[in-house]
Amino acid sequence: MKEYFKKHKITIIFLLIIIVLSFTLIPNERKHYLTENVNDFKENIYWKIVTIASIIVILIVIIYKEIYKNTLKQIMAEFIKLAIVCLVFSFLLQNVTMSLLLFINRLKSNEIIIREYIVVDKIKNNHFVAKELNSDEIITERDYYKQNGKIEIEKINIKDTLKIETKNGIFEIEYY
Questions:
Q1: On the chain, which terminus has fewer CB atoms closer than 10 Å, C or N?
Q2: Does residue 167 contact residue 176 with C-beta atoms inside 8 Å?
């Protein structure tokens, strides 16, 4: 059993770190963001960052292999292996990577933004939908509660104005 742990200790440590991050970082990070901001980050910024990071890793390995005079066949084999590993990790570890990038986004705030929303619909089961005054962005009670805590839904009526204060992060994604 000791031999197994010695042989695979880096893999075991890596998996333990992923498990810890999955139970701590992932659930706690998204509560600082509106749902629309997380979706926007995932669709527009996440893949660019992951692609750039993958290209940098691949280039470093290729340069390292070139310095140590490996053949073109060895370098191409390494390139293909790394490309597959980067692709697999970008899908398998997407939630961990995204949460880590969202955490990095919150490290430095550039500016404070106050957004005003108008309640456009209220449903009986304590749900409402609000639309931003200056755009088509919408929020639900879940997003509003993230920042302002639970309030008595009875106090909110259609056409009420709700304010949400956010900060602009490193990747230009708003958080609170």
A1: N
A2: yes
What is the end-to-end Cα distance of the chain in Å, rounded? 47
Phi/psi at 69 (5° precision): 55, 50
CA gyration radius for the chain? 22
Q: Can you tell me the distance from the alpha carbon of 100 to that of 17, in angstroms, rounded to the nearest whole number?
A: 13
> Residues 41, 173: contact at Cβ < 8 Å?
yes
Residue 47 CA to residue 50 CA, distance in Å, equals 5
SS3 127: strand
Amino acid at 106: R
Is the pTM value of this prediction over 0.85? no
pLDDT by residue, tens only, the chain of 176 residues: 788 878 878 878 888 888 888 788 878 888 888 888 888 888 888 888 888 888 888 888 778 777 777 777 877 787 788 888 877 777 778 888 888 889 999 998 878 888 888 888 887 767 888 888 888 888 888 887 777 776 666 677 788 888 888 898 988 888 88
List of residues 6+ apart from 67 with CB closer than 8 A: none
